C-alpha cells in the first residue's frame, strides 16, 4: 500500500491564486479528511494528485520517492483514483460501461471484453444493490437515473480502479442516509485492506463518523492537521475561520426602521428540486444574503422565484400580490430581475454588440416592437456608467470586454427599467476586485433607494460585508438566520457545516 506526501503545492490561474501552499500527508489504512470553505483550494490540491491539474510549484512523493504526475493516466498507473465533485459520466452509456470506463477490459488488444466488463460491474454494483433504488441496473443508461443514482455510479467508477490511493471529493452531497451508510461501510473495508483515502465533505457529522485525521485548508494554504479523536467540531471550524471572525462593517448596518418597511418579496413553504420548505421576506431597502456551501439550494431557490425552474409547493408574492411565477417573462413583468454568475450560460449574447446585450429586458418588459435608437442609447448608458463599465462604444462586441465588464453589462440590462426585486446569484464569480467594489457600491445605493435585493455569494466575506441578514442554507433548507452581532464568519461556517 502507498504513502503520499505533498509539499508546497501551488497553482494560479492568471491573477487568481487557487492554491498558495498545499501540504498533505496521507498514510496507508486511513481516511484522511480534507476540509475548507468554498474556494479554499482543497479540490485543486486533489486534482493535482489526480493529474488533472499541473502545479506551478511543489513536490509529490509516493512511498518516499518524488514523482511527476503528468496526467490522469499517469495517476492511474501510480495507483491513484478519484471521484470528481463535478460528475464525469458518459450520459448515454450504461451504468456498467461507465463503471469500467477508466480501464475497459479488452480481448485481442482491440475489442471490449463484454463478459469481463459485465462481471466486474456486477461485483461492484452488488455492494450497493439494496440502496441504489428503483431503475438502477447494470444496463440502465446513465441519463435515465436520478441525481443520487448518478452519484453512486461515479463512486463505483472510482472504486473500480482498485487504486491504492482513492480521493473522494464531496461524494455524499446527493446521497440519502442509507446510501451514505453503505458507502461508509465500504470505506471502512478499504481502510482495513490498507488503502489510503482522501475524503472531502461539507457535513461535519460525516467527517467525525468516518475520518481518522483532518487537514484544514484556508485561503489556499494548509493550516493544520489533527487526529479526529483529539479534536472537535468547534476547533475545526475555528481553524477554518482563522482570525477573520469579524462582524460586517458598520457601514452596512440594517437600514433604519427596517422592521416597519413593507415586504417587497414574500416566499412561503417553497419546495422543489434541490430545496425544501424555504420561507422568508425581503423588505424594501434590504439586502438579504443567502449563505452556506455551494450547491445547497441557494441558486435553485432564486431560479424558482424567477420562474426559470419549477417548484412543487409553496407561494411567492411580490408587493403583497401572489404570483404563480411560471416563467421568467412573468417574473420580469411583475418587477423581478435575476443576475447569474454564469454569464456564458445565463448572461451575455455571444458575439453581439454591447447595445444588443444591454437592451433586451427593456424591450421585453415594455413590450416594444420598435424604439427610438437615440433615446434608448441614452437610457442604456446610465446604468453602464453607474457601474463604471469600461468600453469604447455601444457597438463594441461584448466578447472584447473583460469578464468583469461583461458582467456589468449583464447587470446594467436590468437597471434601465428599475425592478422592485433584484436576485443576485453569485454575481461576482470570476470578476476582479475593482469590478466587485463597483458592483457592491451600486447594490448598496439601489437598496438605499428602496429596492429589495437577495444576494447569494460563494464568498463569505461578500455576505458579511454587504448583507443586512443572512439565511444559511444546508442540504436544501434554511438552517439558521444570522442578524446583528450573530453575523460572524464562525457562525456562518458553523451553520453551513453542521448536520442539517
UniProtKB/TrEMBL annotation:
Molecular functions (GO terms): ATP binding; ATP hydrolysis activity
Entry superkingdom: Bacteria
Record-annotated ABC transporter domain positions: 4-244, 259-500
Pfam entry (one): ABC_tran
Keyword Transmembrane helix belongs to the record: no
InterPro entries in UniProt: AAA+_ATPase, ABC_carbohydrate_import_ATPase, ABC_transporter-like_ATP-bd, ABC_transporter-like_CS, P-loop_NTPase
Record key words, sorted: ATP-binding, Nucleotide-binding, Repeat, Sugar transport, Transport
Family: Belongs to the ABC transporter superfamily.
Name this polypeptide is given: Sugar ABC transporter ATP-binding protein
Amino acid at each position: 500500500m502507498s504513502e503520499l506526501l505533498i509539499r508546497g503545492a501551488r497553482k494560479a490561474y492568471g491573477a487568481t491564486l487557487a492554491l498558495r501552499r498545499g501540504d498533505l500527508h496521507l498514510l496507508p489504512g486511513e481516511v484522511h479528511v480534507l476540509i475548507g470553505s468554498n474556494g479554499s483550494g482543497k479540490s485543486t490540491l486533489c486534482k493535482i494528485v489526480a493529474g488533472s491539474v499541473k502545479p506551478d510549484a511543489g513536490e509529490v512523493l509516493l512511498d518516499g520517492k518524488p514523482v511527476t504526475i503528468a496526467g490522469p493516466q499517469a495517476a492511474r498507473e501510480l495507483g491513484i483514483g478519484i471521484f470528481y465533485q463535478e460528475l464525469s459520466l458518459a450520459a448515454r452509456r450504461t451504468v456498467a460501461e461507465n463503471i469500467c470506463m477508466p480501464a475497459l477490459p479488452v480481448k485481442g488488444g482491440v475489442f471490449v471484453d463484454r463478459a469481463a466488463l459485465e462481471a466486474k460491474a456486477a461485483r461492484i454494483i452488488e455492494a450497493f444493490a439494496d440502496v441504489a433504488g428503483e431503475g438502477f441496473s447494470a444496463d440502465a443508461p446513465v441519463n435515465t437515473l436520478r441525481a443520487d443514482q448518478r452519484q453512486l455510479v461515479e463512486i463505483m467508477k472510482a472504486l473500480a480502479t482498485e487504486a491504492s490511493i482513492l480521493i473522494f471529493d464531496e461524494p455524499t452531497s446527493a446521497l440519502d442516509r442509507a446510501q451514505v451508510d453503505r458507502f461508509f461501510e465500504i470505506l471502512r473495508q478499504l481502510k482495513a485492506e490498507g488503502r489510503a483515502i482522501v475524503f472531502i465533505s461539507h457535513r461535519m457529522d460525516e467527517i467525525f463518523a468516518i475520518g481518522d485525521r483532518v487537514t484544514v485548508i484556508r485561503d489556499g494554504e494548509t493550516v493544520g492537521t489533527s487526529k479526529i479523536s483529539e479534536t472537535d467540531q468547534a476547533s475545526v471550524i475555528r481553524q477554518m475561520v482563522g482570525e477573520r471572525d469579524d462582524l460586517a462593517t458598520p457601514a452596512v448596518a440594517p437600514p433604519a426602521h427596517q422592521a416597519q418597511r413593507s415586504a417587497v418579496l414574500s416566499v412561503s413553504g417553497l419546495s422543489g428540486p434541490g430545496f425544501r420548505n424555504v420561507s422568508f421576506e425581503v423588505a424594501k431597502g434590504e439586502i438579504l444574503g443567502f449563505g452556506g456551501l455551494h450547491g445547497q439550494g441557494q441558486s435553485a431557490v432564486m431560479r424558482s422565484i424567477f420562474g426559470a425552474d419549477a417548484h412543487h409547493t409553496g407561494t411567492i408574492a411580490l408587493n403583497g400580490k401572489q404570483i404563480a411565477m411560471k416563467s421568467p417573462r412573468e417574473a420580469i413583468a411583475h418587477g423581478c430581475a435575476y443576475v447569474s454568475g454564469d454569464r456564458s450560460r445565463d448572461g451575455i449574447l455571444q458575439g453581439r454588440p454591447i447595445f444588443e446585450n444591454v437592451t433586451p429586458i427593456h424591450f421585453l418588459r415594455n413590450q416594444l416592437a420598435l424604439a427610438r435608437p437615440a433615446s434608448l442609447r441614452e437610457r442604456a448608458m446610465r446604468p453602464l456608467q453607474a457601474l463604471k463599465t469600461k468600453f469604447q462604444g455601444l457597438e463594441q462586441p461584448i466578447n472584447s470586454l473583460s469578464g468583469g465588464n461583461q458582467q456589468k453589462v449583464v447587470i446594467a440590462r436590468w437597471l434601465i427599467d428599475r425592478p422592485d426585486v433584484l436576485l443576485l446569484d453569485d454575481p461576482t464569480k470570476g470578476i476582479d476586485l475593482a469590478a466587485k467594489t463597483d458592483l457592491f457600491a451600486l447594490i448598496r445605493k439601489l437598496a438605499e433607494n428602496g429596492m429589495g435585493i437577495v444576494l447569494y455569494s460563494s464568498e463569505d466575506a461578500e455576505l458579511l460585508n454587504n448583507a443586512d441578514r443572512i439565511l444559511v442554507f444546508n442540504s436544501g433548507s434554511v438552517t439558521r438566520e444570522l442578524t446583528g452581532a450573530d453575523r460572524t464568519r464562525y457562525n456562518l461556517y458553523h451553520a453551513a457545516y453542521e448536520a442539517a
